[in-house]
Amino acid sequence: MRFSHCFLALLLIPFLCTCGARPNEDTVVSTADSTGMTPAGGNAVDTDQEGSYAIANGAFLGIKPGEPLANYTATLRAGLLQTGEGDFDVFYIDGAAGEELGYVMPDPNDESKVGDIYLTSPKVRTSAGVHVGMTHARLVEVLGPLEFHGSEIEGYTSAQKDGMAYRIDAGNWSYEIDQQTITPETELIEIVILR
Length: 195
Prior knowledge:
Layout: H1 2-18, E1 38-39, E2 53-56, E3 59-60, E4 76-83, E5 86-94, E6 100-107, E7 110-119, E8 124-125, H2 136-143, E9 149-150, E10 157-161, E11 164-168, E12 188-193
Parallel strand pairs: 1-4, 2-8
Antiparallel strand pairs: 2-3, 4-5, 5-6, 6-7, 7-12, 9-10, 10-11, 11-12
């Protein structure tokens, strides 16, 4: 008899705790736009126990290049990225506390699919421990030699290795650059999971 009372009480606790509860200002009830994505200010995703987020097996928070964007409506929010190259429709990735972790570009060959995933938060880490804010010297120490190249339009400086790109905080408007000009203290500012 005592077991059945305890069981009944356990069933009623969630109901009693939610009675009269009202969503706070940060709660989004229904915000999906016509693309099926959550617009700015949408729902956040869960974090791990240490407050960092892992890149693993070519994916981030389960988001993987080539997969349908519609699979990630709870994780992504629609937005606009403005750069020197123009304005781009992107899908931002928010952390559990609402902080922006990065964004997803739709695949240019099929905009219904995930293209490159750009990660800009220092809370994001690769399996090797690479993260935004790491110095160029430490990045090379962890990943081995990297050949960095510039971008003629934006002046970005980045290197690629094993399906990832690593952008550092250095401006180079020529593709070929002298690797010796990159100072050891130059910081990593973006990690990209390539499609």
